[in-house]
From TrEMBL:
MF annotations from Gene Ontology: heme binding; metal ion binding; oxygen binding; oxygen carrier activity
Keyword DNA-binding appears in the UniProt entry: no
SUPFAM superfamilies xrefs: Globin-like
Domain of life where this protein originates: Bacteria
Organism for this UniProt entry: Rhodoferax antarcticus ANT.BR
Family: Belongs to the truncated hemoglobin family. Group II subfamily.
Gene3D superfamilies recorded: Globins
One Pfam match: Bac_globin
Keyword match Repeat: no
Name of the protein: Putative globin family protein
Swiss-Prot/TrEMBL keywords: Heme, Iron, Metal-binding, Transport
């Protein structure tokens, strides 16, 4: 995706500061929204580590420095999420938080549309079960 002004998505979102802002708001919404209860309880009490990983991933995914890949190797998102039961409910709750964060931050309509579609596709790819049993951080759903 190239924005109308030929910016990369990384540049269009505001670089490092823009990604940090998006990630901060995303996890704040996960904490605040009752509708995000299921996805929130899949995370540790402190979201700091999750926020750091998401920031590092998004940096490279959006065309900036490949921080996540340099630190942990190829993202392999589906494999890394495999221990956790991700169903349509979890996917939708995650997307609700990300959608609101993007809508609050990204003012360029074509870029916002592209970003939301890209996240929706990625979130749908994480679904690995039809119905997720209760899952708490540190305990895979099959435990």
């Amino acid at each position: 995706m190239q924005a109308a002004s030929n910016l990369t998505p990384y540049e269009a979102i505001g670089g490092e500061a823009g990604i940090q802002q998006l990630v901060h708001r995303f996890y704040a919404l996960m904490d605040e929204l009752p509708e995000a209860y299921t996805v929130r309880k899949m995370h540790p009490e402190s979201l700091a580590g999750s926020a750091e990983s998401l920031f590092e991933f998004l940096s490279g995914w959006l065309g900036g420095p490949p921080l996540y890949a340099n630190k942990k190797g190829h993202p392999r998102l589906r494999m890394r999420h495999a221990p956790y039961a991700v169903d349509q409910v979890v996917r939708n709750e995650w997307m609700q938080c990300m959608t609101q964060a993007i809508e609050e931050q990204v003012s360029d309509p074509p870029f916002r549309t592209w970003l939301l579609a890209s996240f929706a596709q990625m979130a749908s790819h994480m679904i690995n079960t039809e119905s997720a049993p209760p899952c708490h951080f540190g305990m895979p759903a099959s435990a």
